[in-house]
Amino acid sequence: MNAKNSVRSAPDAAPGADPSQEATGPGQPDCPSAIAELRARVRAFVRERVMPCEPVLDAGGAPARTALRGLQDEAKQAGLWALPLPVEFGGQGIGLAQYAHLAEAEGASDHGPAALGSSTLLDVLMLSRHAGEQVQQRWLPGIAAGELRSSYAMTEPDTPGTDPAQTATRAVAQPDGSWTLEGRKWFITGAGDADLVTVLARTGPAESGTDGLSLFAVPASAAGFTVLREVPVLGAGGQWEIALDGVTVGPDHLVGEPGRALRIAGERLRLGRVLRCLRWLGQAERAFGLMCERAGQRRQSSGPLADRQLVQQMVFDSLLAIRSTRPLVYEAVARLAAGDDARLESGLAKVAAARMLQQVADAAVQVHGAAGLGPDTALPGLFRTGRAARLLDGPDELHIAAVARRVLRGHGVTSRTDPSGR
C-alpha cells in the first residue's frame, strides 16, 4: 500500500539547492564514486522533473498516465531507467547494497520509483524466479519496460492482514488443470489500472493454515475480475478493492508450487520492507529540508522562526531521528544483500523508519503552521505517508513483538505468546 502525496506544482527547492543535504552523510555507508554521482543525478531528476508533476500524478486518470509515460521516457533517455532491475529485462542490474543509496533519492517523491522504473522490482523478481515460462514471456517484458502495470493482492476485507492463515479467497482446481478463484481483496496499490494482479488464495483446507496458500498471476481482463472501488488512505487515492467472481486461469498461472505461497511472499516482503524504509528516509529528508527552509524564511515581528528555541529543538530532534534511523536501515540492507537472516534488523529498521518519518513530517507541518496543512507544499502527503507507514508491511506492534521474542529466545527465554514454540 502506498498513500499518495498532495503537493504544490513547483519543486520544493530551487534546482541548484538541496535543503536536505545536511541530513545525509553520517550514518550512510560510503558508496563508490560512480554510485554517488548517479545518486546526485537521480536526486536532481526527482526534484526537477518528478516533483513538479506530482499534482497531475496524484489526481490519477488519463492525464496522470500520460505524465508518467513522459517521465519514464525522460528517465530512459537520461540513462536512469530501471536501475535495480535485472539486465535481462532491460534494467541496469545494480545490486541492493549499491541501489540502496539510489532508493533514498528516488523515494523523495512517492512517484519517483514509478517514474524511474524501479517500482516493479518486487513483481519482476517474484515472477522471474517463480512464475512459469508462459507467464514470464507474456508479462515480464512489458512490466519491466513500464508498458504494463502489475499489482500484488494479499489483504482482504474483515481479515487481519497480519494473519494470512485466515485468507478467505479460494482457488479451486478444475479437471482440466485450470484454477477458479473466488474472493475479495483490498488496499491493493495500483489495481485500478493494473494489467496483471498476483493474488494470494487458499488452495488447501482451512485447517492447513498457511500451508494451504498459493499465488496466482491473474490478468485484469479475465472474466469475473472486477475493480469494485478506490479505497482512499486518509483521503488520498491509489488503493483499490477488487472482486474475483469465478475468475479462471490456466495451470501455468500458478506462481511457484501449490501451498508454498508464504515462502515466496516472505521473500518479497523482506526486500519490500527494506525498500520502503529507504524511501521513507528520502521522504523524511524532503520534509526536513522544507522545515529548515521555512524556519529561515518565515519572519515574525521579533525575527525569523529559526531564532526560536522550540523550532531549533524540532530541527535537532528531526535530524537526530534521521541520522539514528539510517544506520539501522543500512544494517538491514547489508544483511539482506549478503543473503543473511535479516528478520531482526529489518524489524528494527521498519519500526524506526516509520516512526522517524511521522515525527519529521509532523515537525515540518508544525513549523509551517497553517501552510503545512494546505496544498501548497508536500507536507500533507508526507505526513499521511508517515502515519500509514506504521501499518504498512505489518503494524509496529507485530514487529516489536517479533523482534522481542527473537531476542528473548537468544537469551534462553521462551514467551508464551511465541508461535514458534522455540
UniProtKB/TrEMBL annotation:
Highest taxon in the source lineage: Bacteria
Keyword Oxidoreductase in record: yes
Domain Acyl-CoA dehydrogenase/oxidase N-terminal: 37-147
Keywords, ordered alphabetically: FAD, Flavoprotein, Oxidoreductase
GO molecular function per UniProt: acyl-CoA dehydrogenase activity; flavin adenine dinucleotide binding
Co-factor requirement: FAD
Domain Acyl-CoA dehydrogenase/oxidase C-terminal: 263-408
Region Disordered, residue ranges: 1-32
Biased composition (Low complexity): 10-19
Claim: Signal is one of the keywords in the record: no
Domain Acyl-CoA oxidase/dehydrogenase middle: 152-239
GO cellular-component term (any): cytoplasm
UniProt-listed CDD domains: ACAD
Single Gene Ontology BP annotation: fatty acid beta-oxidation using acyl-CoA dehydrogenase
Quaternary structure annotation from Swiss-Prot or TrEMBL: Homodimer.
Family statement drawn from the similarity comment of this UniProt entry: Belongs to the acyl-CoA dehydrogenase family.
Protein name, UniProt field: Acyl-CoA dehydrogenase
